[in-house]
Specification:
By secondary structure, the protein is α+β, with helices and mostly antiparallel strands. The chain is built from eleven helices and twelve strands. The protein starts with a strand and ends with a strand.
Length: about 325
């Protein structure tokens, strides 16, 4: 048995090998990745592998992208048993642990702990000041493991699905607000809104700094290529109040291929709840126009209570919750 560094692009195949089985929870089938979710994740990883020759050149433009997907693989007798990744958030000193996965028959052997510990050490060596991760709400063994490693609960989110293709009733757009598109290179709308509305405890573990929101130049080249290969249409919108202040942002990721599902991202200033339903309605109408008849998924932070309430009233179905945990190095 051995622990070794995750190497791009060759270990993408190793990750795919583990994920095919590790995305299942025999004792909690409600936590399983649905087939279309697993397919979408695998499709993205396969696309990254195809684009690796281009990415290798882009790394010369944006060295920080070398920290895009670091991590470790656990091998046992030549078989891939587990994976864990850690990545830098933009060019900041906040890092995210993700893709912690161990084959079901090898769980409860301390493998996940060793993988995560290796990621934490790597993050610290690379200058991480804050390290965060998400864990399924209810997965107490994992939460207890992370707590023993020094992580604390500071936030959370809920994932909802919307599967109705029936036309939504129009929601009147409130007076005094302007909706307009913005580009992938425009990082200020999300930065400004997050800085003003995210709770202090969230900002303690996810500092709202320019380096976390401004996309690297290489990412601006890479993102359209990934969208093209995965046949995904992305539109971004910002909402300004009469005084010019950013009060909401939204994004759709709509797939145009035969399989897959759509993603919706919405953040609304809690001081402007009247925007929530009209914005969600407009974005869902747009998704239905681009990619009709497919499931729509949205992940809502627990502190976005207006959005949480609105999606449930609109008929979204709760899938599962996540606990977000953070560590100060």
């Amino acid at each position: 048995m051995s622990l070794r560094p995750f190497t791009m692009p060759k270990d993408i195949d190793s990750m795919l090998e583990v994920w095919k089985s590790a995305a299942r929870y025999p004792d909690h089938p409600e936590w399983d990745m649905q087939d279309e979710e697993q397919e979408a994740a695998l499709d993205t990883l396969k696309t990254v592998k195809k684009l690796w020759p281009i990415m290798r050149v882009l790394l010369l433009i944006s060295p920080s992208m070398k920290d895009m997907m670091r991590g470790f693989i656990w091998d046992e007798n030549g078989k891939k048993i587990g994976t864990a990744n850690i990545s830098r958030r933009g060019n900041s000193d906040t890092w995210l642990v993700s893709n912690v996965a161990v084959l079901p028959e090898h769980r409860r052997k301390g493998i996940a702990r060793k993988l995560v510990e290796a990621c934490l050490q790597l993050g610290k060596e690379r200058g991480a000041k804050k390290i965060v991760l998400d864990v399924i709400d209810g997965n107490l063994p994992a939460q207890q493991l992370y707590a023993r490693l020094g992580f604390v609960n500071y936030s959370g989110s809920t994932t909802f699905d919307y599967e109705s293709s029936a036309p939504l009733a129009e929601a009147a757009w409130p007076a005094g607000y302007t909706l307009s598109p913005y580009g992938a290179s425009e990082w200020k709308p999300r930065f400004d809104l997050t800085a003003r509305t995210a709770p202090p405890l969230v900002q303690e573990y996810e500092p709202v700094v320019e380096s976390a929101f401004r996309p690297p130049k290489a990412a601006l080249i890479l993102m359209p290529l990934i969208s093209r290969f995965t046949k995904t249409v992305t539109h971004r919108y910002k909402v300004l109040a009469a005084d010019g202040q950013i009060v909401a942002i939204g994004r759709i990721d709509a797939v145009t291929k035969k399989s897959g599902f759509n993603n919706l991202f919405v953040r609304v200033d809690p001081a402007h709840p009247e925007l929530t339903l009209p914005l969600l309605t407009r974005l869902i109408h747009e998704i239905h126009a681009v990619s009709p008849g497919r499931k729509i998924e949205i992940e809502v932070p627990t502190w976005q209570t207006n959005v949480m309430d609105a999606v449930q009233k609109m008929g979204f179905h709760r899938r599962y919750g996540y606990v977000r945990m953070g560590l100060t190095t």
